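A protein record pairs a chain with a discrete description of its three-dimensional fold. The following entry can be read in just this way:
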Amino acid sequence: MSVNLRKVAIVGCGFVGSASAFALMQSGLFSEMVLIDVDKDKAEGEALDIGHGMPLARPMQIYAGNYDDAADAAIIVVTAGANQKPGETRLDLVKKNAAIFKSIMPEFAKRQCQGIMLVVANPVDILTYLAIKLSGMPQNRVFGSGTVLDTARLKYLLGEHLSVDSRSIHTFIIGEHGDSEFATWSTTNVSSVPLHDFCEMRGHHNHEEAMREIENSVRNSAYEIIKRKHATYYGIAMAVKRICEAIIRDEKSVLPVSSLMTSVYGIEDVALSMPAIVGKDGVECLIPERLSADEQSKLRESAKIIKDTINSIM
């Protein structure tokens, strides 16, 4: 089956799925969108609600459908899964959502989908690994949203701290999308100026404490939002839109998506986030990020946490 480059499928119509659908509708990237959910009424309701805005936006066909309707989609966005509850870590979700993925992925394998699968449900690294193993799709065309949102959060907080446009900050959060993630401080810069130099230029001198506070704020962002409004969805929806832009426009953008590691600092057969070139074929290659010895140790520890969790459910 050939791929319809103007079509996107969203599997799961909860908070994240519906917010992603709305963001993608506004993006103008697609002319057809199919929403799939175990609760067909929910999918139909979301399709109607978004569809009623079409006279105010760009023409688009939006409808509720099934796995057959997703088979020719250029991108399949998988958000299906249980929500993270207050006090619950992303890894706490693993058994519930792994069971859901084990039922969903064989459906795509049967249909031999030729597009790209973007996993967004949490814990995203573990579910991305399951999707790679169970979907029957090439590993470069199956990857997760990873730490794209975490990296945006880091840039936002640094921008606030330094009173500078966050888009001028170059940095990444890598590793697990979760409690073991960390910032690549050793290579962080503001328009090529090393972070510490820029901080001092802006009157900030207590570097270590500020870096620790900002990194912890990023790591705890989801918990803080969930505590206040019970779910996070706008930020991740914008991350989904950004990743889809890179794919559909073949931008070859560097994004910290979650993909399968092979011989990365000795890490094998586990999905986690590292900067990667993303384009029409999915993940083209990883960027050889230069990490300090301490950052390499953190990356291996993060990989071990994910690997141990994968082994507990396989």
Notes: The mean pLDDT is 94.
